[in-house]
Amino acid sequence: MAKKKRIWVILLLVLLLLAAPGETAYAMNTVDNHYTYDYWGVVAKSIPAFELAYTIDEECTDVALSGVDDVATGGNRIFLIDTTESRMNVYDADFQFVTSVKLLRNEEKKIVLDEDGNQVMLTNPEGVWFHESENEIFIADTGAERIVVLDGDDYYLKRIITRPENMVGVTQFRPSKIAVDNANKIYFVVQSGYEGIVELNQSGTFSRYFGVNKPVVNLWDYFWKKMSSSEQKSKMAKTYAPAFNNLAIDADGFVYATTIDTAAQEQAFRLNPKGENVLRQEGYWPVFGDLRVENSFIDVAINDYGVYALLDQSTGRIFLYDFDGELISIFGKNGDLNGDFRSPSAIAWFGNKLIATDKSLRCAYVYEMTEFGRAALGATECYYNGEWEKSAELSREALRLNANYDLAYIGIGKYYLMQDDFENAMYYFELGNDRTFYSKAYNGSRSLWIQNNFVLILVVILIAAALLVYSEIRYYRKKG
Q1: Are the CB atoms for 145 and 124 separated by under 8 Å?
Q2: Residue 473 to residues 223, 464, 467, 470, Cα–Cα distance (Å)
Q3: pTM of the model
Q4: Do the beta carbons of residue 68 and residue 358 sit within 8 Å?
Q5: CA–CA separation, 63 vs 100, rounded Å?
Q6: How many whole angstroms separate alpha carbon 395 and alpha carbon 372?
């Protein structure tokens, strides 16, 4: 009898263990859905902020498509780079194929020839950028170790930038991903280049290496280097700065960058003119993607009101953050279903749409905002532009659609805080678990209470002082 009881107890325990998923299993099982993380690091299910609306693939392209390695948008067009075919394919706002560029032509539409009389063509390009202010397309022509600049309308060759004579350092001139700011400064990354992002002047001359990417400090190695002699140090392996792998530029001219180097302390960057990382980290958690899965950010895209999207190569997820580094949404995954990724490669904003590409599937996914996405990102845009009341209204709409969206509570709380309505501000900050802003609202409430009750406080202090003086006088009289 006792033996049967033990068997039943063991079976019951096994069933309980199987039925109770752990934290990691719970997080991994939600990748099919859109979600965020709350203050406690628990997965908070969310309704979609974006949904797949269209797929650009070989079926809507008039040339062979062997891969999609980079994407850029501008001038109401989409530019896709196919490294294997050495092409830049262009699509219009309706995602219809416009043209493909491989052979480079001059303004008269004639094929450009080099000094030896050979046709000049793209050679395994890896990156593209549309420079709005100058109406130019910059292509990182990696295989030919150069930058090709095309006219933004007719795609004819305007100039070629090769390695400048004044370029210092050991970094090869092999542009991989490229961006240009409003001051016409050219930035590009070289894969595995540890000296930083290369910055060129508009003329193509070398300016500097840009960006500080700090490696993780190994305390054991640090200890031994401190204890070692100069001769021993010279024989030790050197620690190099982790390499950047992609970049983009926001409307204010700040360079956003990513790295997939596991030796880096940070994976996402917003670099100021000094090359320092000034990415804001005001959310519950630092900007590093999933809390339970190691991420490898392959690209970053920024829109006009500071919302940036990070594309993760290892999981196929897209992470949306606002300007303050607060998590808006997580969606997408690697898999075999329609809309899943296999080898995510690049991401870009196209107005209020997101375009994410996949190298292996040879396609670009076009995502459109849902009703919730329009409310959530609309609130963020209004707050960024100083339209506080409208931002609060849209935050309420986002809450109506998704009660798990903590950022909406915080947005409403910020509106009340700016109206000096500290009680309501504290209420919403408590609902959103924003302890920093709750403290600000509490301090404001306390200061306002003191201001409104100053006379009463002063009277109490005077009465207390008078009682103290009176008690001292009585004491000395009795003593005398």
Answers
A1: no
A2: 68, 14, 10, 5
A3: 0.85
A4: yes
A5: 8
A6: 10
Instruction: Look up residue 194 and give its two tokens.
Output: 């540890």
pLDDT digits (tens, 9 = 90+) for 306-355: 999 999 999 999 999 999 999 999 999 999 888 899 999 999 999 999 99
411 and 392 in contact (C-beta within 8 Å)?
Answer: yes
Nearest of 327, 362, 366 to residue 345 by alpha carbon: 362
Q: Residue 458 is encoded by which pair of tokens?
A: 């002063």
| Beta-carbon contacts of residue 456 (< 8 Å; ≥ 6 apart) | none
The C-alpha atoms of residue 146 and residue 178 are separated, in whole angstroms, by 11
123-142 residue pLDDT tens: 999 999 999 999 999 999 99
